[in-house]
Amino acid sequence: MKLSDKETLEYFHRSYTAVDGLWFVKVEEKYGFDTALDIDKKVWEVMPKIQSRFIKNKLKLDNSIKALIECFKVKLKLDGFKFKTEKLNDHKIKIIIHSCPWHNIMIKSGRIDFSKKVGSTICNTEYMVWAKEFGDNITFKLEKQICKGQGPCIIIFEEIRKSRA
Predict the structure, then answer these.
(1) What torsion, rounded to 10 degrees, do the Cα atoms 14, 17, 23, 27 define?
(2) For residue 150, how far is the Cα from the chain centroid?
(3) Tell me: the pLDDT tens digits for 15-54?
(4) Is the pLDDT of residue 165 over 80?
(5) Which one of 20, 24, 35, 69 is at 20 to 30 Å from 43 when CA atoms are compared?
(6) Is 3 helix (H, G, I), strand (E, B) or coil?
(7) Comparing C-alpha atoms, which of 55, 29, 9 is closest to residue 21?
(8) pLDDT value at position 85?
(9) What count of other Cβ atoms lies within 10 Å of the Cβ of residue 7?
(10) Is residue 60 over pLDDT 70?
(11) Topology of domain 44-159, per CATH?
């Protein structure tokens, strides 16, 4: 039996999401929720570096807000997010996430009460690292979150231009 490219991708995607949740639950069982979340945060201080550098290299992009958005859109698509982007100006982009696979997994697993705390901690950590990987002058702001019941997630990436003196 040979798997198609789509089936292979699905296999690895399911494995990736399953292992993320499984290790969290196992650490939580042994050390408690707060410790598991703290360790998860440390993982997501590194994972975006791996992801962003891989995608940036494959797309042959440099450090800029334009490159960040191109790479981040690839990441969101591969992770199964439903989203759209809005260019606010040449240096500011809004990303609107309508469906978050991580939040959906929390709902499906009966852990919706934890989604708000996990989402607040991990998304802020992860997206901040993504921004910094494309330049120290790129900022990130998470204005709204699905997991907090605020409607779609609203993410703003902005490139701060240095003023000329």
Answers:
(1) -140
(2) 18
(3) 988 898 899 999 999 999 999 999 999 999 999 999 999 9
(4) no
(5) 69
(6) coil
(7) 29
(8) 97
(9) 11
(10) yes
(11) Muramoyl-pentapeptide Carboxypeptidase; domain 2 (3.30.1380)
Provide the 3-class DSSP secondary structure of residue 135: coil
Phi, psi (rounded to 5 degrees) for 132? -65, -30
Domain boundaries, given as residue ranges, for the chain: 44-159
* Average per-residue pLDDT for the chain: 94
| pLDDT at residue number 1 | 85
Residues 6+ apart with CB under 8 A from 37: 117, 118, 121
E strand or H helix at 155, and its extent? strand 153-159
Residues 6+ apart with CB under 8 A from 138: 65, 68, 131, 132, 157, 158, 159, 160
Write b or e for each residue in 110-149: b if 16 or more Cβ atoms lie within 10 A of its Cβ, otherwise e.
ebeebbbebbeebbbbbbbbbbbbbbebbbbebeebbbee
Residue 156, beta-bridge partner list? 94, 141
Query: Is residue 65 scored above 60 in pLDDT?
Result: yes
DSSP structure class, residue 150: S
Which residues lie closer than 8 Å to 110 by C-beta, 6 or more apart?
none
CB atoms within 10 A of CB 71: 23
